Amino acid sequence: MKEQDKTPDDRRGFVMALGGAIATAFAAIGSIILPGSAAASLLDDEDENDSEKVGVKVQYGMVIDVRRCIGCHACTVACKSEFDVPPGVNRSWVEYTEKGQYPNVGRSFLPRLCNHCSEPLCVDVCPTNATYRREQDGIIAVDHGVCIACKYCMHACPYDARFLDPVNEWVDKCDFCIHRVSKGLAPSCVNTCVGGARIFGNLADPDSAVSMLIASNRVSVLRSEMGTFPNVYYIDADFTDEVDRRRPEVREVRVITHRRHKERT
Amino acid sequence: MHLGTPWGLEVILYLFLAGMGAGTITASASMLLRGGGGDGQYFSIARYGALVGPFPVVIGTVLLIFELGRPFRALNLYKVINLSPMSLGSWFLAFFIIISIIYALLFLPWPQWKGKRLSAWRRRLAWVCVPSGLSVAIYTGVLLGAMPSRPFWNSPIIAMLFMISAISTGMALIIFTRALFYKVHLDVPTEERSWHGSGYVLAATDVLLIGFELLVLFLLLMFAHLTVGSVKYAVEIILPGGELAVFFWVGVVLLGLVIPGIIEMFFVAPKLLYGGHYTAPRSIDIVVPLAVMVGGYLLRYVIVMAGQLTGPVGL
Lengths: 265, 315
Known about the structure:
Helices cover 33% and strands 18% of the residues of chain A. By secondary structure, chain A is an alpha+beta fold.
């Protein structure tokens, strides 16, 4: 019985080893033929499989508990000063949504930042590989030295998280404060949030604060229909948009983006 | 000039000029191959197209490089190749610029080369020019269509529309240059026959392309109108009452397609339908292509701006 149990496992192990060897061979060929993203993604898949076995994978993410947000813009200001972001553009910002007609009205806040998607459209379209997904922690970063400011990624991003830096003329966005999180600190916006609305952590670790919040609350992500699999989750967010004016029960909607473009795109 | 959108007039002009240049070279090479590569009415068409085609592509590319702010950064495009439509497109474009310039040079008089050898090389280059010209004409549409975050662009038919418009404006550029520079003695019967013969080929092709372009525009509008959600809201910008409706219906449809199509059809129909004689005054050969080219530019303008001014519905 024991031997019979053992054989399929051995076979599976052999098949998986073979599969791994084939994947490595393809990745090697791929890296010769295509020095770009195609080869990189082949290599990435292999890395992911390996790290899952060992259990060291890190996927940074954020939970924004909108119930705790008071719309004070402390995160916006902290982010601005952390990176010296030029006037008129934002890596992180807070939108206000006002809806309804007196006396039935509501106002809600929506803190925004780069969603650090698991299927990032911006990475897919970047012609120079300047924007890329970091294997070690899943952060989407921009290599300013390689970026040519073609602005293609600004169109590809469904969250309008990217902007053209008017001083340096490269495209920039939130990077989860790589310089802070790599030293074990929380991102600047999380650090400063007065109500504790922003919670940061490792989504791959089931015991992290973010994972536990996601497991025990009704969470949502922005524009999930885009298929980007964002890693920024919201608790109790109001997704009312200006298009909802057409609804008889809403009638009046005003979205205040607090950004240079007054309208959501 | 930025117009408040990420992509401004430089990009729109590039999309128009590169498309037109690629269309011109593609049309020229096809005409050369159609005529067997030797002399004749097809050869004169091919010659005009080859000599004029590289200019818009190069001008458009220079505009695009300077739009980046720091022009030398464009070299970063050629340090990698990946599956981004812009990366593939920039390699196609670089290849096409080199090929089209060599192709154009082969049409200049080279007294030290024997005629047969020259025409053999022209034919070889033409075989390369057709696919590389089409790839430049079509990649711009693929580039715009690649993103679900831009519902107006996110459709496979945008690439088709851009390709047909590129060849159509390319044909218009050939007709226009030919009308400006062709020295013809209409009292000599052979010259008269050759002039009107090649004129008919050009006008008939242009009418066909205009018809296809109208059909593709109809499909784009019809399917956008029939769906619900982001695409339906996005297309409202060019439907009557929308922000870009006047540019689209008056500039693109009426001035760029319907009016030139009707005028060319008027001259083409007698020969097409009952084997009559094709004659078109030189002024028509100047005005109609100009309208087609203006319409082609406005098409790029409307599509690029509409895509940037609209977004997905909801959050």
